[in-house]
Amino acid sequence: MKQAVTSRFSMIDLVNESVAGLFSRPGRAVLTILGTALGVGTLVATLGIAKTAGNQIVTRFDALAQTEVLIEPISQPGSRLQSVIPWDAGVRLARLNGVTAAATLSQVPVDGLISAVPFNDPLRQTEFSFNVYAASADLIESVRGTIATGRFFDEGHSERADPVAVIGPAVANRLNMTRVDQQPAIKIGERIFSVIGIIGEVAREPSLLSAVVIPDGTARELYDLGAPAEVHIDTVIGANQLIARQAPIALAPNNPELLEARTARDPREVRQVVQEDVNALFLVLGGITLLVGAIGIANVVLVSVIERIGEIGLRRALGAGRRHIARQFLFESLLMGLIGGVIGASAGVLAIVGASAYNQWTPVMDAWVPLAAPLVGAAVGLVAGVYPSLRAASLEPVDALRAGV
Amino acid sequence: MTLPGPATVMIESDQPVVELIDVERVFDTTPPVHALREINLSIAEGEYVSVSGPSGSGKSTLLNILGLLDRPTSGTYLLDGIDTSDLNDRRRASVRGQRVGFVFQAFHLLNTRSVLDNVIIGQIYNRIPRSERKPRAVAALERVGLGHRVDFRPDRLSGGERQRVAIARAIAHSPSLLLCDEPTGNLDSGTTESIMALFEDLHRVDGLTLVVITHDEAVSARAPRTVNIIDGYLTEQ
Ligand SMILES: Nc1ncnc2c1ncn2[C@@H]1O[C@H](COP(=O)(O)OP(=O)(O)OP(=O)(O)O)[C@@H](O)[C@H]1O
Ligand SMILES: [Mg+2]
Predict the structure, then answer these.
(1) DSSP states of A235-288 as a string?
(2) FRET partner for B215 with CA separation of 20 to 30 A, picked from A241, A349, B142, B194?
């Protein structure tokens, strides 16, 4: 019964004393907190902006890039290459599982300008220079395009080498052509072609918008076109990488290495790369800032321990054990880190929103980032406080009372 | 109102509050300093003991041992009958906090906290229930005549008032033993007089057990019992 129970330092008292200790020098506390806030803020902003930018890239790439393959002969000098892609490339590739449409596309060397027949206004310019392309029947599907009016040519036109043409909207505009139900005629150089359709829009190959497109067969017959220049393939989503491997073999079984299949990089891979680039740089920066913040806290708490030696001696005289002294300084340190973490998280989120608004992105971030940030700050404070707290606890009460007031 | 505390628990016993048996304190320096030698001292409950002696004679060393801030190199110290040499650091801290009150020459007040908070801090490590702390602190401040200064900050008080706050802090938890190391060393003679009158009052009216170190002959002469330390040896007067 005479044996005393040990002293205690309740949680409420710990918080009270630590907060009071912290705010006894508010200016210093604010400056110290700023270091952690900066570090945590950098980390939060980095993770959020990387995620936001990555997400942006994915949405931009998703729709089109995952379904597109372009086949071209490997560019090296030598005329033999001209004949690598067969004329029936579109039909051959359409048989592959995962291909939704494929079509050849080649520029046709024409001399002479393009004009409407008959030209109705002698005062205005009537002859224009447009690119002329030869293509196979599925071109519009292959470039995810639409026909505004009329129709696209088919294999029959190509086999018969019919002089028909489909024109891009820019060409139609220049030639003052809005309807094709009368099959208006145009002149390409000295040759007359019937316009059977006008392109609406295309998701790929925007050059088609200001071009005249004629059937492959017609181009071979009239302009001696040797072989298709490239093949456009549209695939089902996610099949582009597979088709890119299969298409050269399907087109040139004997020497597929002469063909090059181009695809956009896998968007997940792109996002990964972007995030890793951004992350690596700024996470290091954030980490260093945090480390500096931690050293700042450690330093300030240590100074505070030395300044408050008298208070430590007093508390020991009042019954505080070593652990209670350590706990108080540790908690003060943790509190500075925690407040820094909260401020940093808020600032980081604001930075993400600001950067997103500036770039017109949709801000995206993992929910755990702003929630974990204060904990990171608190952990930094805790770690930073260990050494000063142990120093405070190791003081002998007599020495502390003698040294300080 | 009867406040629970160690002092009231001890009422039945007639054992001394302080019992020092052959206590020595040697500081392990080169050369070693023999600060206390063969100290035998018994202080009964309610006694008022003044400790005097020349500078460097060992007065503060004795007080630190009495207050469990320091350990004897050899010998036995019983506080309220508890053999303190058996206690580990943690237990010494709690016995110190619960049974001893300190008044220092330099006051040791926290200037960023109110007078009331300074007195309450004397109770937070002692398992005194939160609801009791403020009434005890206010009662102690009224006891030392500072009931009108509870919300002040210590740095706006006079030296005498500051020492009264420190005394209130030292008595608010009803200690068995009040230890004062030159409590008037920083005060002028008029203020010293009023602080000494307060100590006598605490001894006579409240029955506190007091040990007061002083250089001042006049102060020392007023105490009912005076011990003298010279070169580490203690003699009764
Ligand atoms: N930690 C220590 N290490 C070494 N020697 C010490 C230590 N503390 C005190 N001493 C020595 O012990 C002796 C007694 O010191 P103490 O402080 O008890 O004297 P005092 O009587 O209180 O003197 P004063 O009246 O000046 O306060 C002195 O010679 C002092 O130098
Ligand atoms: Mg002394």
Answers:
(1) ESTT-HHHHHHHHHHHH-TT-GGGEEEE-PPPHHHHHHHHHHHHHHHHHHHHHH
(2) B142
ipTM of the complex: 0.93
3-state secondary structure of B145: coil
CB atoms within 10 A of CB A276: 13
Q: Say if A6 falls within a structural domain.
A: no
10 Å Cβ neighbour count for A112? 12
- Compute mean pLDDT per 10 residues along chain A, 405 residues long, and list them: 68 92 88 89 86 71 76 70 80 91 92 77 76 94 93 94 94 88 88 93 89 94 90 89 90 87 70 66 80 88 92 96 95 94 94 88 86 93 96 95 83
Query: Ligand 1 centroid to B20 CA: how many Å?
Result: 19
Nearest to A95 by CA among A253, A233, A252: A233
Phi then psi for residue B216, to 5 deg, are -75, 115
User: Does this model's pTM top 0.80?
Assistant: no
User: Do residues A286 and A358 both lie within one domain?
Assistant: yes
More confident residue, A121 or B31: B31
Q: Where a domain ends, among A251, A281, A296?
A: A251
Closest listed ligand to the CA of B56? 1
Contacts of residue B103, defined as CB under 8 A and 6 or more positions apart, other chains included, come to B163, B166, B167, B170, B178, B179, B180, B181, B183
HSE toward the beta carbon, residue A389, CA cutoff 13 A: 22
Range list of β-strands (E), chain B: 18-27, 33-43, 48-52, 74-79, 82-83, 100-104, 177-181, 210-213, 225-230, 233-236
Q: Whose CA is nearest to atom 2 of ligand 1?
A: B27
Best mutation site among B94, B103, B119, B177 for testing chain A: the one with the most A CBs within 10 Å?
A: B94
